Each structure stands twice: as structure tokens, then as C-alpha cells.
Amino acid sequence: MNAAGPGNALSGDALLVEAHGATTRNALMGGLAAAEDRGGAAAPAPRAPRSPSRPRPECGHFDIRIARDGTWHYRGSPIGRKELVCLFASVLHREPDGSYVLETPVERGTIEVEDAPFVAVELCWCEGRGHEGRGRQTIGFRTTLDECVTADAEHPIRVDIDPVTGEPRPYVMVRPGRDGAPGLEARLNRPVFYELVALAVPETVDGREVLGVWSEGVFFPIDDVPADFGGEADA
């Protein structure tokens, strides 16, 4: 992929005009100006509450794509300004049918997501104290957009198996869904997944021996326990 240059950043600005209209542009650019005033901090802007009494004009499909590596594209070109991507991500959610939608207080439209909208690029781990003085492990993740999430009951870790390659596809919930819709997940990149596997311990779940991790008092299975697991220690 070519590095994003000034032309690609301009494409992101053009997106604000062509895909979202002047009203949306003013709202998002106001947030972008605030981000620049913070020295370029990439903190996502607050999401506007949904109001069923104010239906938003349907704009169809915006020509926006989130690639598997988490890069946002407009008309085939990567959007080079991280602050701008964070602003779009702040108004991203999913519909009950699983589609991805950018929704502002004034309009909405669908976008394409190749895998998950976010990618987790860093794992944080700590051991604390839970009830009755027992150890309580906490696992957190940071995404490419600097959004942080702690794995817990509302933000579960799940691992799918690719039906073609047979390789694991790990995800963590970043923003739980609303109104019965699926939430927004981050795919764990390979180094982060390896760190997660290093923290795995065996447990019995529904009569099956599995490997998984604990976080905030919740156990998240990763894979079945290998037949030779612990064999070397027993030898």
C-alpha cells in the first residue's frame, strides 16, 4: 500500500463534502478543529444519541471502505489524516442486519467493512485483587485509533476459525451493539494474539477442556486443550 500523501488527505476532505453534505461537514470539521487544538490528539468525538423522532435522510452507500488492516479508504484512496478517521469512526455503528452505517444527527449511509472496523495493536495486562483476596486478571487492548477497551462481560473476546485457512481469527468487542444490533469489534493482530495465547490457561467449560484467558472475572475460551498440553512438565 502506498503511503498516504497530501492528495489522499485532500480526498478525505472531499469526502466530507461529497458523501456527507455541508451540514455534516460543519459538524465533523468542528470536531476536527477541536482535535487539532488538542495538539492533534486522536480521541474520538462523542457520539450523538439516536432520536427516533427525527428520522435522518438515507444517503444510500457512501464510497468508503475499511480494509482488513484497519485503513479507511475513500474512492479507493486511503484517508491520510488520523483525526479525520477518528471522527468518522465516532459516528459508526451497525444495523440489526449486520451492515455498517455512518450516522450523524442529520443523515446516514452505509459503508463497506472487509473484516472488523478496528484492529487491536497493543495488549495490556495486570493482576489485581478480586473478591476474598483472590487474584483478578485484567486484559485490555488499544486499537489503531487509540480506542482502549477492557475485556469483560460486555466486551468479550471471541476466536473464530477461518474456514479456508484453518487459522484462528480473534476479536474483541469494542462498542457493544444497541437496539438489538451487533456491536463493533476489533480484530487482534498477530503479535497481540500471540501475547494473548501466552496468558492462556486450561479450564473445563461444559465438560470440555479448553484453553482460554481470564479478564475481569470472565473466562474467554481460545481453543481446545492440545492432547500433549503439559506433557513436557509431566515427563
Automatic annotation (TrEMBL):
<dbReference type="InterPro" id="IPR048341">
    <property type="entry name" value="DUF1285_N"/>
</dbReference>
<feature type="domain" description="DUF1285">
    <location>
        <begin position="117"/>
        <end position="222"/>
    </location>
</feature>
<feature type="domain" description="DUF1285">
    <location>
        <begin position="57"/>
        <end position="116"/>
    </location>
</feature>
<protein>
    <submittedName>
        <fullName>DUF1285 domain-containing protein</fullName>
    </submittedName>
</protein>
<feature type="region of interest" description="Disordered">
    <location>
        <begin position="35"/>
        <end position="60"/>
    </location>
</feature>
<dbReference type="Pfam" id="PF06938">
    <property type="entry name" value="DUF1285_N"/>
</dbReference>
<dbReference type="Pfam" id="PF21028">
    <property type="entry name" value="DUF1285_C"/>
</dbReference>
<dbReference type="InterPro" id="IPR023361">
    <property type="entry name" value="DUF1285_beta_roll_sf"/>
</dbReference>
<dbReference type="InterPro" id="IPR048342">
    <property type="entry name" value="DUF1285_C"/>
</dbReference>
